[in-house]
Amino acid sequence: MSDSHSLLVQGRVWNFPDDNINTDLMMPQSVFAKPLQVQLRSVFATYRPGWVDAVRPGDIIVAGRNFGTGSSRPGSFLLKQIGIAAIVAETINGLFYRNCINYALPAMECPGVRELASEGDVMRINFATGSVDNLTQNITRSAPPMPEFLQAIIRAGGIRERLKAEGYL
Amino acid sequence: MGMTMAEKILARHSGQAVVRPGDIAVCEVDKIIQIDLVFSASAEMPKRISNPSKIAIILDHAIPAPTVGDADGQAIAREFARRFGIEKFYDVGRHGICHQVILENGLALPGQILTCTDSHTCASGAFNCVARGMGPLEMLQIMCTGKTWYQVAPTVKFELNGSKPGSVFGKDIFLHLAAVAGSVEGHNIEFAGSGIAGLPLDDRATLATMGAELSAEFVTFPADARAIEHLRSVTDERFEPAESDPDAEYAATYAVDLSSLRPYVAKPDFIPHNTLPVADLDEKIAIDQAFVGSCANGKLEDFRVAAQIMRGRTVAPGVRFIVTPASQKVLKEAVRRGYVETLLEAGAVVTNSTCGACYGGHMGVLGAEEVCITSSTRNFKGRMGSPSARIYMASSATVAASAVAGYISDPTPLLAESL
Ligand code: SF4
Question: What is the ipTM, given to two decimal places?
Answer without folding.
Answer: 0.93
